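Quick illustration, no need to memorize.
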Amino acid sequence: MIKELQINEQIREKEVRVIDSDGSQLGVISTKEALKIAETKKLDLVVVSPTAEPPVCRIMNYGKYKYAQAKKEKESKKKQKVINIKEIRMTPNIEEHDLAVKAKNASKFLEDGDRVKVVVRFRGRELGHMDAGRVVLMQFAEMTSEYSVIDKQPIVEGKNMTMFLAPKK
């Protein structure tokens, strides 16, 4: 987000430290005088450091500056890696082959750089055998250990037991 800076007539201070468009310091002068200098150069007077004493202003083309800032921000967003969380659900009495298929899918997600949330759902009498769910999750983690590390150990949330896997670096 580009924060709006005070420019030209919006500046309320009596005196400001001024930096010229070429980077040289003009010193502490009155705001009116600084505005006149900026106008003669057909540029804007922009407060770059409002917290300083006195505030620091720069003589620059504000439109060009805003455009450059927006471009920089857009470029930095391009370089960010978005990490998705993929969810895999199963039951505590899942068959061996079904578990292998789910582990294979999770491996694909992990190779792509996504985190995987593995959820074991308990229904009815299965709630009395939470340890079976933990065994299934640990077996799943073992099957995907080539591509992943356990990011968050299995925890119980209501009728679900959840574990997070992160891709190996």
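Strands lie at 15-19, 25-30, 44-49, 56-60, 85-90, 115-121, 148-157, 160-167.
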